[in-house]
Protein: MYND-type domain-containing protein
Organism: Coprinellus micaceus
Amino acid sequence: MAFIAHNSKWVYWDVSLPSMAGPVTAAIVLEKLYHSEELRSVVWERGDCLDLVLWLWMLQDRDSDPPLTLSTQLTKTKAGNNPLVMVMTLLTGGPRYLEPLKVKMSALPYRKHRQFVQSSLLTIEAWTADPLPLGKDTPMWMQRALLVTKAFLDIPSYAKAFIRSQISGHLLHCSSLPHCRNLRGNTPAHELGLQPLKISISTFFFPPSPSIQSPDLVNMLVSELVLSGLLQTIVDYMLSLTEETRHPWVGWAEGTLRQGRHPLAQLASMLSDGKMYIATSNALERISKEQQGCLTAGWQQKYWNPFVATLNFHENARKMWTGCDMHINKLHICDNLNHHAKTRQASNDHGSRVCSNCLVAMYCSPECQREDWISFHRQECGSRRLSRIHGQLQSSWVSHTQKSYLLSVLTMALFDRELGNAGTRFLPRKVIDDEILMTGTDYARLTFEAKHISSDASWESDDSPNVFELNTWVSPHSETLVPVQALLKVSHGGVKLFQDPRSLTIIRDLIASRAVDESVRQSGPRKRTHLGVCIVYAGAFRYFVLGRFSVLRGLETTRVQLLNGFVKVVETATTDSPIPKNGGLRP
């Protein structure tokens, strides 16, 4: 079969498409061999048979326009049925043959991974191409090809090719074409029966077992789906049904904190990612005013209003973030715990400095870097370097820009709480000069200051050393005070995340700042240290963004200043501490 497939042009020289005749014959024979119980164990245990199947899947005739794949040719010649897709579906359906296939796929270079995904995309698009006759089995074949393509996503190079192909957006667009609207396919919610093809395709894409996938894969797939019409699809579905109807995206939270989570809540929890925010914001603008009015007036409002509130929260956060002169050399981060005690002249225009070894620690000046090296960084530099390399390999590394934004989000949430606007913190709020008296353009000191909205200060009613928690898993994002012990208990691989020397010093400073004499606290402006932690769920990982703040409560204004910020990245599946159902530090 390999001989016939590889030498098809001269073996079948007298047919109309000689380059594909041999591979077509080989695919048909391979399917028959698989269904033969007597020959299956003999044939498919051979590595060369698996090599042949992978080669057939990636085969493309570059002379045709557009490039013709074997699967596309089989789809046309077999009236929609495809023996190659059937064989690959059977082989990837269980570990017996899937694991050897993964070994062979891992040994292939990136260009072969890209070719495999491109062949899959061309194959699936062939089923939606007009005027190809579309049958009732078309969605089944498309979904089988999708499952084959997703079978190798745990291979990093393959996942990269999968992301760059933008396959999710392409296929959601194809499934929405006019001649495909009458097609219906299966979804994970089998009791709902068959659904329109665009709904069926979207449920097969996101998230592909998010608890074991990289953040880049999950965020890129979903942002492509949203840009290609996923949000409009969800809105149309919600408006066409009653409140009791179960939605078809029940598999979206598979392996995460909440099974069967509503898709709008799932999208809202991902808005910390820049691509997801931009895609969702643009998609919301395409929702008609009439539909938005219906969503806010009916039963849908319990899902729609929190989703929009969370989007508005991130819109305000990004306006503040981009309004603070946040270019590459002025990220408002300095890892020196003594940075706030330095004069402005000590941290002048040297530009941001990153440790040349670990590439993680960031400082505002040579003086801060030298001081922190002696105090802490000399002991932690090696481990932070290893963590960065490991994170980059798993696409879980938090860049300095992303870290800066998450710290800005945490600062704004704490700022709103300190102002006393507990009832409106997630509603749209204009950011104008007469409301925000000063936003942090001070170098490496992100600062927000505004007039009090309420006379009640959060710290006046709670002097215990608690930690401010912003949980982005909840929509709208929840904020609460948790005991510092809850932070100290978080562990990963048997190691307490926040019991390293730097974290313990920060926590001791928090406790010391609360031990203030009552007479001092009742006279004049009041200043204290506050800790905040922002929890972000990103694919298989959790980000703990720890911020150290100075809060100054004056007679008319409140000022919140970010002193330092650090990020801890852990794998959710291997975290020692149990994860509460609300996704926070404690139930």
